[in-house]
Amino acid sequence: MYKLILFLALCFSFSSKAQQSWKQVWTAPIDSTAVWDVDQAGNAYLVDKQTISKLDTAGKQLLTQSTKSMGTIAKIDASNWMKIAIFSEDQQRICYLDNALAFQPGCIDLAEFGVNLAQHFSTSAQTDRIWIYDQLNSELQLITIRNSQRQIVQNLASLVDLGTVLQLIEFQNKLYLFDNRGQVITLDNFGSFLSAQTVAGTHIQPFATGFLASDKQFIRFSDEETELLTPFFELVSGEEIKWFCFVGKRLFVSTATQLISFELIG
Questions:
Q1: pLDDT value at position 225?
Q2: How far is CA 10 from CA 16, 89, 157, 209, 225, in A?
C-alpha cells in the first residue's frame, strides 16, 4: 500500500506540465559525511558525528542514540520503521534498531556469511533476507539470515558491463544497481538479469514508471521507456544535491552542510 501511495503521488506530481512548486518545511545542519533515510511516515533518521537522531515531520528531534560502537556508518535503511538497519563498512556489520532507536540483539557479522568486503547493502521485502554487493570481487549475494543460505552472482561486472556501484536498491521485487557511468542494471528478486539503461545523474530513486535522478542542484524524472527527462525540482540555493528521498508529497534533500525537507504544493 505504501509503495502504491508513492507511485500515485509521483503520477500526480507529473499531471501538470508546469514546473513543480515546493515549500520548505524544515532544515537541519549536518556534516558532509552524514547519512540518513526517511520512513513511511516521513520521519527522518540522521546519522551524524556518531549519533543517530530521529526527526519528526516538522524537523523536531525526538530521539537520539550513540552509534560510536559501530564505527563509521555507511548506510541507514528505514524502509521498515520497526527494524531500522544501519551498515558499518569498516566493521562489516549490520545492526538493527527499533523505532525508539534501541539496538536490537543479534547484529549481523558479514564475515560469518562468507562476505569478504561489502561496500553496499539493501534490505529486502523477502522475509529475513538482505542483499550485499562486494565491489572488490564483483559479487552480489542474497543472504537468508535465519539459515545462512546464500544465493551468489559472481563476476557481475563482466556479466553486465557494470562500473563502480554507487547504489543498491530493492523496489517492488526488483533489485537496481546504479553505477558511476549512469547505468542502471535491473535484476529480479533472485538476482537474474532483466534490463540495463542509462539515467543521467549521480543518485536515483526508482518508481514503477522510471527514476528520479539528481544532478548538481536539479532533480529530474527519467521515463523508463523513453528515457525522456522531466523537470521535478531545483535547489534554488545552487548547492549540489548529495542525496535525496521522495516520500508521498515530501522531498528530502541533503547538501554538504544541511538536510532540508520540502513539501509539494498543489
A1: 81
A2: 11, 33, 32, 10, 16
243-257, pLDDT tens digit by residue? 999 998 999 999 999
Neighbouring C-alpha atoms within 13 Å toward the C-beta of 177: 31
**Does a structural domain hold residue 237?**
yes
Tens-digit pLDDT profile for residues 115-151: 889 999 999 998 789 999 998 889 999 999 888 889 9
Asked if 85 and 76 touch (Cβ cutoff 8 Å), the reply is yes
The answer to the question of residue 226 being in a domain is yes
What nine digits make up the cell of 87? 551498515
**Is residue 165 assigned to a domain?**
yes
Total domains in the chain come to 1
What is the CATH classification number for the domain harbouring 99? 2.120.10.30
Q: Between β-strands 22-29 and 44-48, what pairing exists: parallel, antiparallel or unpaired? A: unpaired
